[in-house]
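One thing: could you explain this record?
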Amino acid sequence: SPYFQERVFDVKDVFHRLLWELRPRKSAEAGPEKLVLVAREASVMELFAVERDRIAGMVIEHGSPQSHAAILARSLGVPMVSQIPGLTARVRPGQWLLVDGSAGTVEINPPQEHCLALAVAESASPVPVTEPGEGLPRVEVNVNLLYEVDAAVRLGASGVGLYRSEFLFLARRTLPTEEEQVGIYRKLLQQMNGRPVSIRTFDLRPDKLMAYAQMNPTAARPFDWRVVLDSPPLQQLFLSQVRAILRAGAPGEDGMRVGPVRLLIPLVTRTELLEFVLQTVTQVQSDLAHEGLPHATQATLGIMIETAAAAPLVEDWAEWVDYFALGTNDLTASALGLDRDDPVASGLCDSLHPGLLRVIDGVVTAAHRYGRPVTVCGEMAANPEGCLALVALGVDSLSVPVNQLNAVRQRLSNLPSPQLRELRPALLQQKTSKQVRELLHNWDGSGV
């Protein structure tokens, strides 16, 4: 029965924890030392099961730096390096590993001076960098877990450009109720203290539900957002989440500022899907008004462009939405015919491919023609060269990981805004990724 299928995961968790506690231990292991987890692969759900206080870093043989597991590891503050083939055969329990998540390197039994140098660099307290000047994109942050919000506020983030609500679903074995979601979203909005927050509705796909799929291939299927038009239970789940988001965005009555809430829809690939979203939002607003429940009546609606097939439809959809968001991780994979989580293909996911840049330029041009802003919330926005390319193509805002906010703001503050207009036509004329990189690397703002 479904009940006992669900209990399988709980039994599995208990079984793994018992094995961990019963493992042979050396006397030195009794202390509070943290461990580096070395594995062949890791899923999002398995990361949530890790005892965070015991993990100093993770090294994964397979996987991609743009995988959802890697994104979550960064949010948890866990240095993670992937694509280290054969590592599990080369390391032994008790060896020291130096994991540098920023550089993507792993040292086995590193010299002490290397460890000290990395520790000093990580202990430096970041100083907030002000928002870039006029003519440059606004910089917001990506939030996966609520505990990241305090750091975002301390750094002066102007808003949350992407809150990945699916991690709320993945962090537990049962689906959150509407009331539970209201409480979590409300806390997020209150913590941002009047700054805008984009809450993306659940984007559950098999790559994020790997643990379920391994246990039962059909277990992940009912939650796959891509089949929402053919799934009444999934439609009800979406309706419940929209209700929760709009209720959380109700004007504050408790003396705390509640920033404007932006409803962001993932992976819109067809007009029929957008029509379903619009009908659901209209129904929710009518139902909440009829029930007398406080809610946001003017929530901004945005949709994510994550496939090459959706890009040409921006002009058709512009009259129905308030803004567009480019998910460059999936868009890059889609445009190049790759799987973002495939370790073999990850090196080919080139966000500076000239064809992809022209796709992005087409989206920005079409959206601006109808007065709709475009934001970018993929990893490309935090990449030095990718950031420069996006600015040259005219995007209106960037949303980056919290720990990258200062670096991106600093990068933008050093850009001469007037000269950026000259970079765009030159960028679109390049025929290879190498030529694009050379152009961006050599550009100093003095003209092309």
Q: What stands out?
A: Residues 1-10, 210-220 have pLDDT under 50 and may be disordered. Residues 138-442 form a domain with the TIM Barrel fold (CATH 3.20.20.60). The CA atoms of residues 44 and 69 lie 5 Å apart. The longest helix spans residues 271-291.
